[in-house]
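Standup notes
- HV: blocked on the assembly model, inputs below
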Amino acid sequence: MATQEKVDVVIVGAGASGSVFAAVLAKAGKKVVVMDNGPDWQTSDLISSDIWGRRVKPAGAPFILEGKHPVSMGAQGGWGVGGAALHYFANFPRLLPNDFRVRSEHNRAHDWPISYDDVAPFYDKVAHEIGVSGDAKAEELWRPKGQPYPMPPMKTFRNGKVWLKGFEANGIRMVPAAVGMNSIEFKGRAACIYDGWCHVGCPIGALANPLVTFLADARKAGAEVRAWSTVTRVLTDASGGKVTGVEYYDQKQEKHVQPANAVVLAAWAAQNPRLLLNSATDKHDKGLANRNGLVGKYLMTHFASGTNAMFDEDVENHMGTIGAQYMSYERYGKTAHKGAFGSTFIVAGSAIKVSGLGGLANTRPDLFGADLHAFMKRAVKNLSRMNAFGEELPKIENRLELASEKDEFGMPLGRIIHSYDDNDAALWNANFEEGMKIAKATDAKDVWQGRAVQPTIHLMGGTIMGTGAANSVVNSFGQTHEIPNLYCAGPGIFATGGASNPTYTIFALSMRGAEHLAKNWSTVAG
Amino acid sequence: MDALERRVFLKGAGMGMLAFTVGGANVLMTPEQARAQGVPFRLLKAREAETIEALGETLVPGAQRAGIAHFVDQQVSVLPGEALLEARQLNVKPPFVNFYRAAIGAVDKAAEARSGRRFAVLATTEQRDFVDAMRQNKIDGWQGPAGSFVYLILRSDAVDVVYGTMEGYESLGVPYMPHIAPEKRW
């Protein structure tokens, strides 16, 4: 076992949250090492192909997926430098003020320990740092005023416009989608060319993935990104009051210790608790930051209710981005749907490729043979889709725990147990019913939906934030209540999930947490 | 995978081809070319490959000629982290060959029980009826991964090799519009 030279901070995970912490702390003059268990992907690796795009997805899951609605880890997760943000859709809706007050306003789930106003400045800051296209003024229909986005909205195409009639007929106002993509050249990064390959990675840098934004900044400021480095334990001092670094394995499966003054776990909502639980000591017999038993608890996801529509006209569904052209918070109120609790976020107008999980062929999974071929010939010209994303409230029984089986490094696998309840099903169905009404009010000739399995999208929770150790694992900055120089970052710290795509909030919260750590370095990690 | 094969693989990733073994050497070619040239399978047995080809052709016409069996065979022979199979995204536990073997075994066993013959030698209409029942988990005595999941995975593989390539897009009349083009077919 080799012990590396001590650094100020080791960040576990080079995805959305880890890259922000790395950039902020490296710019603050800290010696930063970012570790990731996969390859050091370059933008030139991002081949425009659904087949080749699978290279940046997890393989050999270190998780056992259980429950009535197992988490779709393979499709959602990341692997390697850039993490899941290498292949995300870059839809950038914010959480809204009502997301932060679910408990106090509805006596359900949790309140966040902070308000929308605490996060809003960081939404604006992130937008200007990495580039967001959209119409902030238009969003003021539903949210407090903020700064304008630095770029105008993206172009729209027929595959988005064909839905507007249906939304209008149902009283749903749509505005240009806020996306982390360049509608014009931004800070030397190219403008989008609307070829719809975002979901396999954007090699021209028009989409704000970590490689061309925060991670590039971090490297420029001196941060080291150490790929193929699998962290298995966070190490603590004899008193158990401080973390001292991490234990990790390199690509040759040789064990190392990386000493550090602070550790930031930014390895995804499921891997962070797996690491905390696997770092138990005599001073932390249930795992780090887990005296209250809440590490790994309150996992939550989003569920989409997608509606497909076949039009007579050529809707150019190969054009645009995999993100949305239009979005709406019109059903974001927690009680917007009678008989179902939770927010809904609505989008329309995304490019649809031929193959892949979200491709044309899977919009009619029942078809095969000649029937499938006939459908494909029509769908490539005439099919478009809208989606409504629903909020799952946190439930303590949706959790990660350690399994008895072990991975190649001897680390126990994580078992993710996840099930929806009747309310989740009710909201999912309410969004399908409204989606059908919207589609039928368009000029579409055929409309249909796939309701076979309630999907699990955007894993969140597991190390939730709160006001103290009685109700949570971390504070609003991601700092664990138990160990001051140990942080968690990413969607795992969300107290509730809202219905908005989470990455913009991940960036904003990470920036808030990282700046707080930098400002308080001497008391936290000095 | 040894270092040489890894280099060949990575080169292939950029070129959009796969590394097949011909006469002990790694050669880059498409699955269709590998099939046309009769490249030996790495892991699949001949009968297993026949079943995959027959299933693929039933699911998506053209999958057999496009080399679905060579595609699957090559992909299950590489490290899971280098595999391009949809199985990877659908949380199939590596090694992926175990899933395919279990799936093929279930299909052939069920076909024998239903019709007295393995799937690849059933009549076209029988194959179609079988797949339709399999996708709905309506085959009595089925033993193996759920029929609907076998359908989903094999259908995805067939869609990949027939429609998911640059040639596939062209055949459907869709502009491919790559940022970084997978040279040749992918």
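- HV (later): unblocked. Chain A has a mean pLDDT of 97. The longest helix of chain A spans residues 422-440.
- Next: hand off to the docking folks.
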